[in-house]
Amino acid sequence: MRNILIFSLLVAFATGAPQDISERIAGGTLAVEGEFPYIASIQFERRHFCSGFIYSERWIVTTASCVYGRSTSQLDVVVGIVSVIQPSAQQQTIAVSSISINDQYDPLTKMNDIALISLSRPVVFGTAVQAIRYDEVDETINTAITMGWGATTADGIEVTKLRKTELTLPADCSSYGANEFNNNYMICAGSSVSSPCQYDEGSPLVQNGIAVGIMSKNQGCGTPYVPSIFTRLSAYYYWLNVVGGQQPIPAATTTTTPSTTSTTASTTTTTIVVPTAPCVNCETPPTTTTTIVVPTAPCLNCEAPEPTTTDAPIIPTAPCFNCEAPATTTAAPIVPTAPCINCETTQKPTTVLVVPTAPCINCAL
């Protein structure tokens, strides 16, 4: 068993398998979960080889040198992690849909060293997974922080735990040739106690929560440390907008005390506020109760209900001019209580003599 274990360790070192050597990294400190929720591990055939940052739910920003000549089928992007070995609660591994390299990229000088990776599905944001906005360098601040899973020594391999380090800017990049450093498109940053290394390419350079650059190149990570060169993100705002679209406005986190609406889980309770002042053009619910008004004054040409059976003659109680007495049999009409002019009564087959009680002029008997 002992021989098998020793043989396995030798194979691991010979094949270059990742090792947990975080305790031996010179300079910098270990990051904790959620400290840099925007960092992304770009993996080639399931092994970390570059970094990037979350630009939006569908795009990752990295350097062109990271993905130049790579096939999308060989790449994956992992977010929400601190360790490449131990899984995290919000860890997401997403396939790459396409790669967009700046068309002015020069692989020899690494000028215009920037690229966008399109993801096959959106990133699910959480406390340990967030996008970061980019902007110009804040010249009032002479420090910035970078992080990654890069090697600890020259020609070393990647580490398994995310580490961070603080760099000073602007640093002196005079050791680079005139065609290797251009201040308009690059940032020079360094430290006397630490340095990015291989496998740190694409790692963001951050000031006060704003990404200002991505690690492009350096002259190795051996001592004495030489400043590193970062791609200046603000110089490529037009290209980023064209390819990846403008970054979404970050969601504001506010605490409010609702007055008329309260929301719990999937249930929403709404309280309608009734105005206490005069209301113009206010809509009120339609009424459903209708009151029939019965007139108490004389009614002309009113339809009377069906008469009842009686043989009593119709005796007008007021003078009747040109009234024709209808012939009735058994039905008695309604006796009006007010003068009735030109009132017609229902014709009946039997004639009953109507005896007027007032003078009747031209009455037909």
UniProtKB/TrEMBL annotation:
An annotated Gene Ontology molecular function: serine-type endopeptidase activity
Keyword annotations from UniProtKB, A to Z: Disulfide bond, Signal
UniProt keyword annotation of rRNA processing present: no
SUPFAM superfamilies cross-referenced by the UniProt entry: Trypsin-like serine proteases (SSF50494)
Signal peptide: 1-16
Ranges annotated as spanning the membrane: none
Gene3D superfamilies recorded: Trypsin-like serine proteases (2.40.10.10)
Record InterPro entries: Peptidase_S1_PA, Peptidase_S1_PA_chymotrypsin, Peptidase_S1A, Trypsin_dom
Keyword Signal among record annotations: yes
Domain Peptidase S1: 25-245
One Pfam family cited in the UniProt record for this chain: Trypsin
UniProt superkingdom: Eukaryota
One Gene Ontology biological process: proteolysis
Protein name: Peptidase S1 domain-containing protein
Protein source organism: Daphnia sinensis
